[in-house]
Design a protein that fits this description.
eight-stranded mixed sheet, globular, alpha+beta, 6 helices, about 180 residues
Length: about 180
Amino acid sequence: MRTKPPGERIATLRDGREGRIRPITPADVPLLMEFHERLSVNTTRLRFFTPLRRLSPDFAKHLCTVDYTKRCAFVVSFPGDNSIHGVGRFEAESRRSAEVAFVVEDAMQGLGIGKLLLDRLVEQARLRGYDRLTAVVLCENDSMLTLFRESPYHAEISMEGSQAFVKMDIGTRELNAAAS
């Protein structure tokens, strides 16, 4: 079942610029492929656990085709420009849990885009009845692990070999605790 896409939002980045957070759409396939080509080998390795140089058109289409219930994705661009600078997504693991993943263009890292995407994904996940988000991150990905540790979602992180396994309880009780 396909759900109506959520609305777009404008948020202020750490450098004072406005960022536009909007749902991904199938029309974003060429923009996603261009975005991916701007990523460094290291950034793609940290996101996909392999230095994936190019997205195939079929894989890009798959990534851009979501139902906003079991699969959801948002992109960050600037007002008036559709170029993608960051992508965050979740995919259902079970009825109550979904896995999240992010990637931010190298030149835009450190501006708070990951946090904006995480908060937007948590909001959408809660609306869809999820109370837990998980992630698998390479242990060397300090930026991503810091994002999870500093989030208000009480991330539990366990390390196993070269991977970190993240669990965040995002249910309404966590929302109420974070608001206190």
